[in-house]
Amino acid sequence: MRTASQIAALFTGPQVHRDVYTCPEIYKLEMQHLFANTWVFVGHESQTPKKGDYFTTQIGDQPVIQVRHSDDEIYVLYNRCPHKGTKIAIDREGNTGKFFRCPYHAWSFKTNGCLLAIPLKKGYENTGFEETENAKGMTPVGAVRNYRGFVFARLAAEGIGFEDYFGDSISSIDNMVDRSPEGRLEIAGPPLRYMHKCNWKMLVENQTDTCHPMVAHESSAGTAVNIWKEMGNPEPRPPAMEIIAPFMSPYEFFENMGIRTWPNGHGHTGVHHSIHSDYSAIPGYFEALSATHGKDRAKEILDENRHNTVYFPNIMIKGPIQQLRNFIPLGPDKTLVESYIYRLVGAPDELLARTAMYNRMINAPTSMVGHDDLEMYERAQEGLMSNGMEWVNIQRLKTGDEDFTEEAVENGTTERQMRNQFDAWVKFMTATMEKA
Amino acid sequence: MAISREEVIDFIYDEARMLDEGRFSEWLSLWLEDGHYWMPLDYKQTDPHLVTSLLYEDIFMLRLRVERLNGARTFSQKPKSRCHHVIQRPFIDEMEGDRIVTNTSMHYVETRLDEQFLLALTATHELKVVDGAIRIANKRVDILNCDAAFGNIQLLP
Ligand code: FES
Ligand SMILES: [Fe+2]
Q1: Chain A: nearest CA to B35, how far in angstroms?
Q2: Ligand 1 midpoint to CA A119 (Å)
Q3: Beta strands of A246-372 (E only): which ranges?
Q4: What is the pLDDT, as a whole number, of residue A239?
Q5: Is the pTM of this model over 0.90?
Q6: What angle do CA A359, A363, A364 make, to 5 degrees?
Q7: What per-residue confidence (pLDDT) applies to A395?
Q8: Of A82, A345, A318, A337, nearest to A188 (Cα)?
Q9: Contact criterion met (CB below 8 Å) for A165 and A301
């Protein structure tokens, strides 16, 4: 196994070694260290609104259950029976009532994981069973935090606190939630599930890659613009024009849009404006938001047009359209992307309709935009196997040494956010490795 | 002249053949202007608007899809995908005036390079007779494993 210093050597600043995308050993270390030491997104509280409601997912490669306990708090437990390992819940969501019951030998557990009962328990008398970890019940993860409805967990029992980890980056979640006149989001239906034969980090990097839309997506966005012109530029514009055409904006647009980076690998595109800025107003929405916050504050909330906010390690949210994409690693060259949408409670349905439209137009396995992105990732995954060159370049707009412990706002085409992610990658990969 | 049941059934077969042979422009001309192609994400989904679907596309989007397939810089279509529908004889669920509704089970195969996948699906066509010709008013395609994770589905099941 590689040592901490060997891991650190994979990121030089301007370059990153291809092993971070291709090497099974590095992937294993990521699951063991990176996904244990960081705060990873689990789910939204509205996925488990009632006591006993649960939702199954993964943190890195660890199967977990998000469940609402009788104290109304959300717990995150490893999805594993303490007896012989059987997964306790197999369906994606459900309600388990007051307790979980393993279908193999009927051990049962409270919804906070504690062992409730074992049939024929006397068989364990005088065996020393009480002293084993198995006797405790289902294991909870290291730490859980429900932040305004978004549930995050840290697998490791010890480590960086939630506030220190996210710092000011949490303002993107705040802005998304503040857009609800009631200050609350609600999950809207199941997520799109899109399988990618590439490393999970390629997807995360692409969220702030502002030099690819006008190139990779010319076939969809450029063609949309051409068809609309041929039709004589009809107004109101077809929905596809509002959603897809901005991808064709010139480099200048993306340069001026700006990128902000925060410590610990978080960052966002769209500091000054974004591809979401020119969406048409939805009647009644501003009024509803003003009724809650007053006009000035409502305007301030809506003037924030952050495009993609990356929460390191593996999610992206879009505040202006209430979307979250979860890049779930399944292997060094396999990633499941789940794209969720949320309703702004108290806002007109038209907003949610636009959000649902965005999701299917951009993030579906049937999306013309998604097709070209996936094509690029998979070509990169294959191309990186070439021994002709071992290093990947992420040097754009890197002038001199960079201090990622400081927040920074830069030209929107910088690759600083990708470097920021790798800086955090080294930090949280090596935090629990022996220093050698 | 009234449309016969046999003409309706032939129409469904012809449509599938157009897609398999890549005659997309011809396929587009079957559609009425305000039609939608819907592919739900959820089993027995009832609402196309307030939850996500795989597709819910108007004619502008379908036209975009077709023109994109022919584009010079359509990278995910270099090389191009091919598809193949095997369809069961359609049920005619409704035939009333100029409105016809059919329900057709299909197996859909799509391939590109070394990859090939199979989808089992049910297509519901809402057809309309306009000037003596059958046109597509709406089409709904339910994929049997709609809630599974897919890679690219690039053509039209
Ligand atoms: S494996 Fe769960 S009770 Fe035996
Ligand atoms: Fe893209």
Answers
A1: 14
A2: 11
A3: 259-261, 267-269, 309-311, 315-318, 323-331, 334-344
A4: 87
A5: yes
A6: 95
A7: 98
A8: A345
A9: no
Mean pLDDT of chain B: 97
The first and second tokens of residue A396, run together, are 């754009």
Q: Residue A285 corresponds to which tokens in the numbers above? A: 């929405």
> What residues of A are in the B interface, CB distance below 8 Å?
188-197, 216, 218-220, 222-224, 226-227, 238-240, 244, 336, 339, 341, 343, 349, 352-353, 356-357, 359-361, 364-366, 368, 370-372, 374-376
Place A195 in a pLDDT band, splitting at 50, 70 and 90: very high
- The mean of the pLDDT values for chain A is 96
| Cα A399 versus chain centre, distance | 29
Give the nearest partner residue to A195 out of B56, B67, B149, using CB atoms.
B149
Smallest CA–CA distance from B75 into chain A, residue = A372
CB distance A89 to ligand 1 below 6 Å: no
In this predicted complex, what is the ipTM?
0.97
Cβ–ligand 1 contact at A84 (below 6 Å):
yes
Distance CA B118, CA B28 (A): 24
What is the least distance, in Å, from the CA of A187 to any CA of chain B?
9
Structural domains in chain B, CATH included, are 5-143 (3.10.450.50)
